[in-house]
Write a structure and sequence with these properties.
This protein has 260 residues and is an alpha/beta fold. The protein has seven helices and nine strands; from the N terminus they run βαβββαβαββαββααα. It has a five-stranded parallel β-sheet with strand order 2-1-6-5-7, sandwiched between helices. The chain has a two-stranded antiparallel ribbon with strand order 3-4.
Length: 260
Amino acid sequence: MTKFNFDVITLFPKAFESINNLGVITRALDKNLINVNLHDLREYGEGNYRQVDDKPYGGGSGMVLKPEPIYKAHDSIDKLQNSKTLLMTPQGQVLKQQDLLRWSSLDQLIIICGQYEGFDERVRCLADEEVSIGDYVLSGGEIPSISIINGLTRLLPGTLGDPGSLIDESHNSSLLEYPHYTRPLIFKDMKVPDILVSGNHEEIKSWRRQKSIERTLERRSDLIANENYNNSPQSKRIIKESNQFMNFRIGNEYDIYPDW
């Protein structure tokens, strides 16, 4: 099986030392399922001081990453045929589980980590996609990159002990995952729902489906509303079930699509 290659261009390669202590990624490294290659941007800096940043034209606070070192670092990477380059930036599209699934079919992800006040606008030409992990700003793209490496690696065959654990996870569909319980049966007067110890697998399956819909409507109703952009039979079924389960009336704030 071909290894998945992560090539990360970063000014702070030591930030990635933590991946050696993250169970899923460590397991994938030990099994030779992935390569994580770090490319120190400083090595491609200019002059005796290996300069990688400069003041922005037009004035303003902070420093901006220069384009030349990033281009040199990107050019130095051996590109596989099935490869994409991601640029980590708060201006990118917010990361979704479906993105990780999409990228898991590749052989290589090249990830460029932004830093400081940003990067020279001409760096954007290198990227196939610009990615953000949320509507907030971090000091650099290293933590978002680790998030992508972690999220994608766990989707690769052979990484998880039980591949079935991926099926019902939150965000794999438009529903959040149902509640989980384990031993003890009663903890601080809180009891595991009777249905889960009944042994009736069909009723358990139905209960979990209902709880997924209920939890999604309570916490992330936007996920179901976004199904309007996907008119597949599955999408319509999710929306119909959500309305039926919660018995919403037309005009109720949670009555997503009453006509379906």
